[in-house]
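As a warm-up, study this chain.
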Amino acid sequence: MKKISILLSAVVITGLLFTPKPAAAFSQPNLQLSVMSDVHINKDRPSNKFENALNDLNRIAPTYDAIAVVGDFTDAGYEKEYQTFTNILKTYKNPLAESIISIGNHEYRETVVDPASPVTDDELKARFMQNNGDPITKVYFDKWIKGYHFISLGGELSPKSLTPYESSNPGARDWAYISEAQYQWLEQTLPINAASNKPIFVLLHQPIANTVYGSDRWNAGFDNQRLLAILKKYPQAILISGHTHYLLNHPKSIYQDGFTMVDTSSIESTWYDGGWVPTLSQGYVINVYDDRVEFKAREFSNGTWIRTETIPIPFKETTKDVSKPYFPASAKTGISTIGTTDAAFTWDRGKDDTVVDRYVIKKDGKLVKTIYSRYWEPEETLSLSINNLFPNTTYAYEVFAVDAYDHVSDNPLKITFTTQSVTGWYQSNNNWYFFNKDGVKQTGWLQLNSKWYYFNPSGPMQTGWNYINGKWYFFTEKGVMVTGWMKEGTSWYFLDSNGSMHTGWLFTGSKWYYLDSHGVMKTGWISTQKNWYYLDEMGVMRTGWLPLANQWYYLKPDGVMVTNWQFINGKWYYFLLNGQLKA
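Now compare it with the structure written out below.
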């Protein structure tokens, strides 16, 4: 079973009126067959879903002419899994019905499950051919049933045979590796007795990328569009694939682009973009008439019809959708819960002529969440819980409906609510906020218990250096504004009594200091307004006689260094231009 992380990125080309039709008595078709895939017989985890599907098929179409299983009928390609599958098929299928078994990627997975397994690609292919039920010599072959042509294609490499480039690509081990010989064989085989009024059934486990539902994520990995180009030459071709496990309830399980492509979901486990749907088990009953092919999607788990699609023969494009989904005027929204930091709301389903595939929730035009619809369920509660909200804050969301073909509703539902209030300090996402007694969020300056704090315009309390109204301020880790001397790293700063960073001369504690334009306290010689001053290692401005490096200097009472002749304490001294005393 594949572990699937699914993101739908569908190509908008086709669409059908999505109204499940009631079961009706079969008219007599020229050919009646069932198509299934992804049975995933596991040697260690037995399942009765395949038996249930065959028993249901016998009840609804007891005289069917053929059954096709489009790959992944085993879970890892073990001999025991082949034997179990073959025994179930022989025991429960119509004994007169022919079978067509195609190879899938899981038939090559023994060496993925058990890397120590010595089995080779040739041995895995031989195992498939020996258990196919028909005498075949390659993993690709063709067969005629009641005058209708069936062509089965298949990958030819196991994951261990991939090149390093391929191995580095996610999903590459599940791709279909088709040789040049197989492509040439297909081009030679398709025109045999081909007629525009007769469908040609082509079976390949993996779908062409970006075609049927789920193929954006799970596909054959083709990068050259070669298979698409070949089949477009035969509009009557119907390419049937599995691999995706995606639900047949979705209209894009049938897709047209010059010819028809059909996805078969899965017998063992089904998926949609919202995740795993383990209880369902799906496939098709196909009725072929002179002028049409009728695909009847079946839910084998409960024996009900899902929907019916009809493809005209000769080919005519019947799948096109241009209308957008919408919310009826009666659609309502509701608020389930509102807290200080979380809320939950609900809304009614949208409407569409296919299905509403998902709902896109936006806030201020930006995507908040995508909720995938369980469109196959008659009743569905749609809801969204939002966390990490802010107290006493009004939020407005818009809900858009998106249909199976990516059309978006024009009229979103609108939901507005205000979270509950708090008072005092409040922490959110590593930020601290303060709410006054009325629950209003504080911004700007706030004095509490003789301490000052600052909150930026969006509300978070500030720490560290902050430039406010043309001045620098420093706040501790707890948000308290600093005044006086402060050391950061190896530098000293002085914050005035109003908290602003001091620059220039500073007189404090009966001493003078100098702080540069960055607020850093200076030491040593400095020059301001063409005068020289000396600041000791504590930053204090010196006056009087100053011995430095075996030289003498003299600094006036205002700190200015003297030069030339000076009369000091009743004596004359001469100082050089650099301030040094002339001996």
